[in-house]
Amino acid sequence: MARPAWLPGATTIGLVCQDGVILASEKRVTYGSLVVSRTYKKVFKITPTVGAACAGLVSDMQILVREATAYANLYMLERGRPIPVRAAAKIMSNLLFSMRLTPLITQTIVGGVDDEGPSVYALDLLGSVIRDDYVAVGSGAEIAVGVLEADYRKDITLEDGKDLVTRAIKSAIRRDAISGDGIDFLTITKDGSSEETIMF
Hints:
By secondary structure, this protein is an alpha+beta fold. Helix content is 32%, strand content 36%. The chain has a single domain, classed as Aminohydrolase, N-terminal nucleophile (Ntn) domain (Glutamine Phosphoribosylpyrophosphate, subunit 1, domain 1, 4-Layer Sandwich). It has helices spanning 58-79, 85-98, 141-151, 158-175; strands at 12-17, 20-26, 29-31, 34-37, 43-47, 50-56, 106-114, 117-123, 129-132, 134-137, 182-189, 192-199.
């Protein structure tokens, strides 16, 4: 089946490691056959220990992340503790479902570390929430998930996880023309998060 010309592309991954979570995405933004940007960031920090990564329309990603961050801050003010990862994913799910008649065109991964350990959730544009050890979304997901399935293991370290995510995204970029130009990483542990960008 032919893909609609307006469908935005991306390759975005969430990976649970034994000591944290890695969220990553390539940097290209396209509109049909036009490359709109080679430097866009699709990985967002919501709190120091919760993040989100998206594939879809840029404006919809920005709206969803901005609202989720506001709710996470309210949770911290009301309860005096950071929002759990599952609660952050459920907030985003509720936001997506409330917009189901005029949906936000974005596939979303929410990941982070809380008292229950590291976790990753995949959300579709209607708000379904699925927990998994690794998730790939976007136009390059089918290619990336093949690499993840081949080499993922439950006890993978953050260092080895980053290498696996890099290989998965690079594999997708080789075959998916609407993904490319570099990778943004958000690495989350119980002590906080760090961001890194690789350009190529």
